[in-house]
# Entry
Amino acid sequence: MTAELVRGQNHPLPHARLEIRVSAREPVMAGATLGDEDGRVHGPEWVVHPGAPALPGVEVSRQAAADHRLAVDLDALPAAVHRVTVLLALPLGLGGPDRFGAVAAPFVSVTTLDGTGIADYTLTGLDRESAVVALELYRRQEAWKVRAVGQGYAGGLTALLADQGLDPAADLAGAIQEAIAKGMSRAVAAPPPRIARTARTAEGDRARRDTPPTAGPVDYTHPRRQAPPQQAAPVPAASRQPAAPVAGDASGWTMEERLYNQVWGMFEDLARTTAAYRSAVDFAESRMDQELERVLSDPRSRNGAGGDAVRAAARAKHDELTARAREALDRDLAQLTAEAQVVEPALPPAFAGWDNPVWHAYRVPTEAPMALRLGDLHLPESPELRIPMLVRLPLARGLWVDSGRSEAAEAVGTDDAVLRRLAMDTAVSLAARIVAVHPAGEYAVHVIDPAGSAAASLAPLTGSGVLAGPPASGAGGVSDVLGRLTDRVDLVQMAVRGGAADSLPPDLDTAEQLLIVNDFPHGFDDRAVTRLRYLADEGPAVGVHLLMVADRDDARAYGPVLDPLWRALLRVTPVPDDHLADPWVGHAWTYEPPRVPEGSGILRQVLSQVADARPHRRP
# Structure
């Protein structure tokens, strides 16, 4: 039976190989420190965190996430280690909550590798703290125990690490937060809580928030998806079949909102069911390794028929466990695939791929959508099951289409020239989607193409007349466009902060501004780079958005000064690449860019309608 711990209580650990599962409902960093017999942490090299995620016996996640599974092997710890302290911290300065009192109480569970619960602990009573010691595993007389701690620190990671005896704590805390920021820059942002909810939905959310999760089988149902109706009478297990999927069966006031929540539910379901499969496979491999190790460590059974029989039995058990895990995964994948086949044709243009027939009936909308599709995501266990990558509008971050070399580009044999062309084609496809799903005139599109090398890719935008002006080229063109947009940001910021929005110049274009930058940093001097960084940081809040096409390696000459720029943008790629992460368990998802079908004229058709419907606006 799983022990429900309260603060200060301890419980024996009957196994050496453990998982520490963290559920926080908001992205948190999970890490650990290793202490000696006196509890002293000897230095930063004894700290496990996203920037240094593995030490002998302990491995943690590489990024902040709402759920974590920390791997601990007590037998693999160095002999000098007598304590493993598990700590949690909120990512600060990244737009999320800055104190644990503003989020649901984190829940921590110590389990065996197969998920059997050993001890649970809910961290209650936190308020202004942004970092907390959740629990500690400690050794007493060669036996290991777990203790619930729950010690929070209003001073954050710096105060927590200082309390662990680390010096200088501030430098290490800064390095950890830097690693968190880098990890979160590759994560697909989870949808914010919906404002429009029924009373019944609100009560359900409140009940889930106040009830800690329990060890054992995981419920993969998305919390915002409606539960199926209760049956009047029990159905025999043999005849029980999954309900036929229906498009729009999630909660929401409108069909658009229901489809949006349903897609995100599918995304989370696939992330979690794959995590369960991977955990089961890891358990099977660990069990086989332990059994084979016992055979090899005993000279009496190492050779001969007896040893062969034990090895064969261990491998057979491994195969049985992995086959059972794959059977469960395939069952979940079949249900999700059936749901995707129903949902995809029902998606509105903002959520639909370019090959969806809905685009052939396209009309310029009168209202902005709640989200936009940037491409597709899939995992290696189910490459044929694609999840639409939906991001909320208005865009909170700019986009960066990476035109540089990568392992993915090398794998498909794409040369540099083709890669740059594909990157710009991807940017044009994304820009076309952005303007097409908004009302006429709500977006003004500007292009900086310093060397004029993107004319072919830009043809759909220039030929349709969607652009606010011809693409800017040369150093003078770069300076002019950046100067006008930074002036616009300054004006709008001053008006908003002064509560004087009515005082804006009458000739100021109040439409959202989208700036496409090709071939950065070609044609950019230091002043232009500073302006671009300013637009990336301050622009989205006042309606100025970046869509950059660049090779990060080409910008190395500027040194680390551009690192904040890259982190401020969401990186996408012109070829499939497994660089994005989900916000729940942090899987590496393969991103598929939005592709216009070969030979299709849908892009020009849509942009022509957009251009015809646009009122004349001054850039």
User: Anything to note?
Assistant: DSSP finds 13 helices and 21 strands in the chain. The two ends are 67 Å apart (CA to CA). The first strand starts at residue 3 and ends at 4. The mean pLDDT is 85.
